[in-house]
Amino acid sequence: MTTKREWVSWAIGRIEADFNRSADTHLLPLPVPALPDIAIYLKDESSHPTGSLKHRLARSLFLYGLCNGWICEDTPVVEASSGSTAVSEAYFARMLGLRFIAVVPKSTAQAKIDAIAFYGGECHFVDGPAEVYEAAQSLADDLGGHYVDQFTYAERATDWRANNNIAESIFTQMAREPHPVPHWIVCGAGTGGTSATIGRYARYNRFNTRVCVADPDGSVFHRHWADRSVERVEHPSGCIEGIGRQRVEPSFLPDVVDRMEAIPDACSIAAAHEVSERLGRRCGGSTGTNVWACAMIAADMAERGLRGSIVSILCDDGARYADTIFDEGWLAAKGLDIARERRKIAHFFDTGTFAAG
Ligand SMILES: *Cc1c(COP(=O)(O)O)cnc(C)c1O
């Protein structure tokens, strides 16, 4: 007979042992030869065991739930997720022998649904992204389970001072670069957890690094950042999975964000195609959003004669989007013509100049 406390101790030990077997993710240079004084890097979060930056979040959320006494030996674990978080949480749930159910919009990419199932998770489908929260809470209530609620807990489950969070890892890996303290770090916002961690970490360590959030143009986050009274948008926020929301999530902390760029989906997808080709591997749509904002910032810095580094995030593996943003038929059905945007981002990588809009 194991006691509750013994099981929690065992569970934390399993997660820590998994971490101990894992390597850190690479920081990849993204060369723009025409801009010798500006260095762009991508933190490759696709190389985590579950393929995205949500691997870090899922680990933190499970540790948080275990240490808070919310997750016990027989607790069904439920999450509201557009996919990536659920894939990573399914991995940790299986590691601990727990039932896991993801509440996902039915528009979620099939490859992500397959990945959740691959790790032993179940999917509960709802019509639209706005419905996932309530559906997840009531499912957890019905099952006597735990609703993880990444959107509320992302910013507090992550140890923002350090403990190998993404910010600490980036600054450590930048140490031997020509401009070791990034001028800008660019990321997206889904939960808002990544931007909160990086913004707090930079302040706490007194680095003169600014945080730019690259947001889909349909998302509420940049509207809220500009005017705090805006709490939601009625239209769906677009087709870049993982980022852009209709409601301001509790984990999005606008006060630690220095700049926001609203990026049209066609630009994000074009940049995802372009950077995939330049790196020789496929990246997801939100990486494209980040890269488009990096290009704007780099061109801007060059014009003002500034030198320095820009770090952004390769959020997930593009293989997950073979039947969406990398499928011509899918793009056509969505009415997305990315040819002009593709020429523009290619022009940036070739010449270092970039005209926004
Ligand atoms: C969640 C997610 C993001 C944004 O990260 P947050 O920390 O949740 O703001 C970006 N890209 C992808 C693919 C994601 O799944």
Automatic annotation (TrEMBL):
The keyword Lyase applies. The modification N6-(pyridoxal phosphate)lysine is found at residue 54. It holds the Pfam family PALP. Its EC number is 4.4.1.1. Coiled coil: none annotated. It is an enzyme of class 4 (lyase). Its cofactor is pyridoxal 5'-phosphate. Keywords: Cytoplasm, Lyase, Pyridoxal phosphate. It catalyses: L-cysteine + H2O = hydrogen sulfide + pyruvate + NH4(+) + H(+). The keyword Transcription does not apply. InterPro entries: Cds1 (IPR047586), Cys_Synth/Cystath_Beta-Synth (IPR050214), TrpB-like_PALP (IPR001926), TrpB-like_PALP_sf (IPR036052). Residues 25-316 form the Tryptophan synthase beta chain-like PALP domain. A cysteine desulfhydrase that generates hydrogen sulfide, H(2)S. The H(2)S produced by this enzyme may modulate central metabolism. Belongs to the cysteine synthase/cystathionine beta-synthase family. Cds1 subfamily. This is L-cysteine desulfhydrase Cds1. The gene is cds1.
